[in-house]
Structure formats: structure tokens, C-alpha cells
Design goal:
- Helix 12 (297-304) packs across helix 15 (342-356).
- Helices cover 49% and strands 7% of the residues.
- It is α/β, with parallel strands linked by helices and 371 residues long.
- Strand 3 (187-191), helix 9 and strand 4 (220-225) form a beta-alpha-beta unit.
- It is globular, with a radius of gyration of 23 Å.
- It binds adenosine-5'-diphosphate (ADP) and magnesium ion (MG).
Length: 371
């Protein structure tokens, strides 16, 4: 695998510390220069192929953009993680980022993990006082139907410590604890936690296990997933006597990752800023200021319903098509031919109707308008 290949997010499962290190160290991609149509036409075939390949890669990786949602999440995470640095055996506050898919949870959390890792290494060096590698962050992404034992094994695998096949869930858990103590892990991220197998017994067992981690591991536990609160994971224990859940609830701070909305002026401003940031990154010969933020604002909102995942998919695919077909700009006609994910398409029809009927707009006041 080439160095560039190893950094390709498509190849990076980020399930091992080496992958995580590569992610942390990856330099920012550099944006291909924007060439005019004339210069583009003057390129010989080899240069043109190379230029288009560079643009394909660039457009496929436009993020992360510092959206208000991402900034806000980062500020909250810094508050919590830093206030958790108290000594001794005090249980650390846990965090749950609970929101629907495609709202940028993983992206924002990883960007935070990267900054946190860098800061800790810069301040405390890459090795612990005892000479072990320092790993400020341990990150585990769960996949379909993970049991408690698989979760413990996945934590061990992050450290390249596979754990014995014969070990019980508890033994694996203790080994994982050992690794985290030796490597002085401070932040444990469990992404897509909704994949953890929940028994019919209202998740008491799961909840206990996470509580055990939060109590025994000297880390800030960062749970990321969809519908975690519905699973009773950190509700304040509505049912009397449900003390286990109640305790998990009290120590967990819930953070949200909302979609963009256009029903307030502030919301429309944020949407516009996102489109402005995005259009600056687009490398097409006929792109122009306002291509997204003025001309396509309503259209893009209708098609994505404010979900950044859908927006990025649409713009990425649109740019690929614009390069391939020679259109070299994004227009409504071109984007109409680009397919987006199902959920976004479903919400689209209704919203488009409202936008057309003049009942709603995604445009901020005072924004330029292009007739
Ligand atoms: N801040 C951002 N800037 C640019 N793209 C983003 C941003 N947040 C999310 N995305 C894009 O949206 C898609 C979904 O994001 P992801 O973080 O996987 O969401 P979630 O974990 O909530 O399902 C990804 O393809 C990602 O590239
Ligand atoms: Mg995710």
C-alpha cells in the first residue's frame, strides 16, 4: 500500500492505532489550481489526465468544513475532556453524541480526536514516563451486531493486542483496561454504538458495562450513535427504581449534531456560509462566486434537507460529472441528473413545493441575488 493509499479514507478503517496515527499525521490535501477553459484546452493529454485525476480526488474529499455544528461540538468536548483531567479515582463525565446518520458526527468527532491527540503528544511527548507509547485517544467503530465481548476485543485490537480467543468478555475487558492505563489513554471513542447488541432486558447489561468502563478506565468516554437516548442509555431514569440507568444518565452529557435549518435568519446565514465555504473549494473552470450560495441555495437545501452528508454527496457527485462531461460548473440541470441518497430524496419533494410556493426560503437577507 502506498503512503497516499494508506491515507485514503476509503482504505482507513481507523480500527488500529497505526491507522489512527496516519489519520492524525496526514497533511492537508492541497487544492489543484483552478485553470481557465483556455488553459484547460491547452493541456496535452497526459497533463489533462493528471489534472482531472487530481480534481476527482480533491472533490471526493472536500471536508471537513468548520460548520457551526462542528465548532460547537468541539467547544463542548474541550470543556468536558479538560475538566475531566482531575486526579484520582473520581469517575469521569461521559459524553454521548446522539443524532441521525449523515449529520457529521463521525467527521466532527474524528477531527476533535485528531486535535486532542496532537495537543497531548505536543505537551507530554510520544512516550509515557514508563517508556510506553502514549495514545491519548482510543477509537473503536462498531459494526453490525457487536456483542460486549466483541467490543472489548475491538478495544484490544486498536492496540494490536488481539486478546486470546478463549478469554471471557470480562478478561478481555481487563486486558483492554491494562492497555489504556499503560498508554495513558484519555479519550475513549465508541462510534456507532447503536450497533451494540441490546438484550430485551432494556439494556441493563450494556449500561452496566459502559458504566464499568466509565468508572474503571481513567478516560472520558465518548459515545457516538443514533437513537442512544431511545435505548435508555442515558435517560435520567424515568422509571422509578431504574437506578442503573439513572446513574448512567447523570454522568452522561448529551450533545447534538443538528441539521441546517432555514426557518430562522440565523439558520439561513449558517446555510449560506456553508455554501460559500464549499464553493470556494470547488475546482471547475466555469465556477463563479455565488454558484452555490446564490444560484443553488434553495435547490441544494431542498435536495439535502439541510443534512451535510447529503449535501456533500450531491456536490461531490456533481463535481465529478461536471469534470467528466466538460460542463465545468454546477447547475440545476446538471445536479438534477445526479442521484442522492434515499432519505434526502424523500424529503425533497415536499420541501421543494414549499420553496416554490414562496412559503420558505433558504436565503439569508441581504444576500446577493442573481437574476
Ligand atoms: N464538517 C463537514 N465538512 C465537510 N463534510 C462533512 C462534514 N461533516 C460531515 N461531512 C460529510 O458528510 C458525510 C457524513 O458524515 P459523517 O461524519 O459520516 O456523519 P455521521 O457519522 O453523523 O453519520 C461524510 O461523507 C462527510 O464527508
Ligand atoms: Mg458515523
Amino acid at each position: 500500500m502506498t503512503a497516499a493509499g494508506a491515507l485514503d479514507p476509503g482504505n482507513l478503517a481507523l480500527s488500529r492505532k497505526e491507522d489512527f496515527q496516519a489519520f492524525v499525521d496526514a497533511p492537508r490535501r492541497s487544492r489543484p489550481e483552478r485553470l481557465s477553459r483556455t488553459t484547460l484546452g491547452g493541456l496535452d493529454e497526459r497533463a489533462r489526465v493528471a489534472y482531472d485525476r487530481a480534481r476527482r480526488q480533491w472533490h471526493a474529499n472536500l471536508g471537513p468544513i468548520r460548520t457551526p455544528q462542528l465548532s460547537c461540538l468541539h467547544e463542548d468536548l474541550w470543556d468536558i475532556v479538560d475538566s475531566n483531567q482531575q486526579d484520582g479515582d473520581k469517575a469521569k463525565g461521559a459524553v454521548a453524541v446522539d443524532a441521525f446518520p449523515g449529520l457529521g458526527k463521525t467527521t466532527a468527532v474524528l477531527a476533535f480526536a485528531r486535535e486532542f491527540h496532537r495537543r497531548e503528544i505536543a505537551e507530554h511527548s510520544a512516550f509515557t514516563a514508563q517508556g510506553h507509547e502514549r495514545w491519548p485517544v482510543c477509537r473503536v467503530g462498531l459494526t453490525g451486531n457487536t456483542g460486549m465481548k466483541d467490543l472489548n476485543r475491538a478495544m484490544l485490537e486498536f492496540f494490536g493486542h488481539p486478546g486470546r480467543q478463549t478469554s471471557t468478555a470480562a478478561q478481555l475487558g481487563l486486558q483492554a483496561l491494562d492497555c489504556m492505563l499503560l498508554c495513558e489513554v484519555r479519550l475513549l471513542i465508541l462510534d456507532d454504538l447503536h450497533f451494540l447488541k441490546w438484550r430485551k432486558t432494556s439494556g441493563i447489561e450494556v449500561s452496566n458495562h459502559l458504566k464499568w468502563i466509565a468508572n474503571e478506565f481513567p478516560v472520558t468516554l465518548l459515545k457516538v450513535g443514533v437513537g442512544l437516548s431511545d435505548k435508555g442509555l442515558f435517560s435520567e431514569g424515568e422509571t422509578a427504581g431504574d437506578t442503573v440507568l439513572a446513574q448512567t444518565g447523570r454522568r452522561t452529557t448529551r450533545l447534538d449534531m443538528p441539521p441546517f435549518t432555514i426557518d430562522t435568519e440565523r439558520g439561513r446565514r449558517h446555510w449560506r456560509q456553508l455554501l460559500l465555504a464549499l464553493e470556494q473549494r470547488i475546482v471547475l473552470a466555469d465556477a463563479f462566486p455565488g454558484m452555490l450560495a446564490d444560484d443553488l441555495s434553495d435547490y441544494l437545501f431542498a435536495r439535502s434537507t439541510g443534512h451535510i452528508g447529503s449535501l456533500m454527496t450531491l456536490v461531490n457527485r456533481g463535481c465529478q460529472r461536471a469534470v467528466r462531461t466538460g460542463a465545468e460548473r454546477l447547475t440545476r440541470d446538471l445536479l438534477d441528473q445526479v442521484r442522492n441518497d434515499e432519505a434526502a430524496e424523500h424529503a425533497r419533494t415536499e420541501l421543494e413545493y414549499a420553496l416554490h410556493a414562496g412559503k420558505a426560503t433558504s436565503r439569508a437577507r441581504g444576500a446577493r441575488t442573481v437574476s
